[in-house]
Write a sequence for this structure.
């Protein structure tokens, strides 16, 4: 029996996660899988119920689970809270508590959606890149950090960009292993012309590359990488980078594909246990309207079945069902062109379940 902990979170989280759960239930029935799901609180929903964004009960359930399916956290309701107990802290806490250091973010352009991208179809059609982002280190976690008052009375904000050799090495291994299953090219993104921490990053990437002679390693400064992603994104196979650069570049890569609502992600520990979530946030602007695109979360279920639960046929079936609904012309508002009639979150979920059972 495999245990999946479901954490719907805030905003559109519960809406999209409930569609993803219907899809999971459909593959469990179709493939006779031995998977049990339970639910927990995280983010603003957890703050409202317990005062904490990542309560002990959620931590215990997450540690006992084989995989976690997350919606999204955060929203204006909690924006005025102290930074230490904001919903987003729940996300950082679960990633670091579970040692989920390896974030895999595929950016795949479905040919059916080429016109939804803001870039010219010839620039993006056929795009298939994987961003491997380090998730538990770097400036988002580095100490010391804070806002202090200087002797002259002026306040100063400060953070620390820090990476140890072992942190760099293990994310490099994730990237090279992923590249071995793809086009065998890794582009490491850093700012080695300015930041010493990334000089070390570059050195370790070179060292790990020696263990993967078939993989071609290149380096790129993050400013150029941002430019190249919108100029000629098809040049990339696997991009590996630190926490902050990966955060920014992966959202940019997401938009190349037409919608942030289409992209799943996996965050893995060293043993392959993982948390799976759409790359987008809680979208408070559309929450509660039944218009959010549930496909990123549904595709996150496919990644979960593939990377943590070992159910490859079920994962493939979900991905094929998503292709089928796109072929049928179903589009939520975020991926509909102005001539296309948008369908609701639940209608998209219905269609994926129907395609799975067809
Ligand atoms: P967002 O990703 O929530 O939304 C950005 C834009 O994309 C919005 O216009 C939104 O409507 C749209 N969008 C996002 N997901 C969509 C979907 N599935 N279907 C259709 N449209 C979709 O980012 P934001 O507005 O910067 O942040 C909103 C809140 O989410 C904030 O509180 C932020 O901290 C939080 N956040 C959480 C996560 C997470 O839980 N992993 C990630 C990013 C942001």
């Amino acid at each position: 029996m495999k245990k999946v902990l479901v954490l719907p979170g805030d905003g559109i989280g519960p809406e999209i996660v409930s569609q993803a759960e219907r899809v999971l239930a459909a593959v469990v029935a179709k493939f006779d899988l031995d998977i049990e799901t339970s639910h927990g609180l995280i983010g603003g929903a957890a703050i409202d119920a317990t005062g904490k964004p990542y309560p002990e009960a959620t931590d215990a359930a997450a540690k006992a689970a084989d995989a976690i399916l997350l919606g999204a956290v955060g929203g204006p309701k909690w924006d005025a809270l102290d930074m230490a107990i904001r919903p987003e802290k729940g996300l950082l806490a679960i990633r670091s508590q579970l040692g989920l250091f390896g974030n895999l973010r595929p950016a795949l352009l479905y040919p059916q959606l080429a016109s939804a991208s803001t870039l010219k179809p010839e620039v993006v059609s056929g795009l298939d890149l994987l961003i491997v982002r380090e998730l538990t280190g770097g400036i988002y976690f580095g100490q010391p950090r804070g806002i202090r008052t200087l002797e002259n009375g002026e306040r100063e904000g400060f953070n620390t960009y820090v990476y140890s050799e072992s942190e760099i090495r293990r994310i490099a291994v994730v990237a090279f292993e992923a590249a071995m299953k793809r086009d065998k090219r890794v582009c490491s993104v850093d700012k080695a012309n300015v930041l010493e921490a990334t000089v070390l990053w570059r050195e370790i990437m070179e060292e790990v590359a020696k263990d993967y002679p078939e993989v071609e390693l290149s380096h790129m400064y993050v400013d150029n990488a941002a430019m190249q992603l919108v100029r000629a994104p098809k040049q990339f196979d696997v991009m590996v980078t630190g926490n902050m650069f990966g955060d920014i570049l992966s959202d940019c890569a997401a938009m190349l594909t037409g919608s942030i609502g289409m992209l799943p992600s996996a965050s893995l520990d060293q043993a392959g246990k993982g948390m799976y979530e759409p790359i987008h946030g809680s979208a408070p602007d559309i929450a509660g309207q039944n218009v959010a695109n549930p496909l990123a979360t549904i595709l996150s279920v496919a990644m979960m079945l593939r990377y943590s639960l070992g159910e490859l046929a079920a994962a493939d079936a979900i991905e094929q069902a998503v292709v089928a609904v796109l072929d049928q012309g179903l589009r939520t508002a975020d991926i509909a062109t102005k001539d296309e009639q948008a369908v609701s979150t639940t209608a998209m979920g219905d269609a994926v379940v129907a395609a799975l059972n067809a």
Remarks:
- Residues 1-114+259-358 form a domain with the Isopropylmalate Dehydrogenase fold (CATH 3.40.718.10).
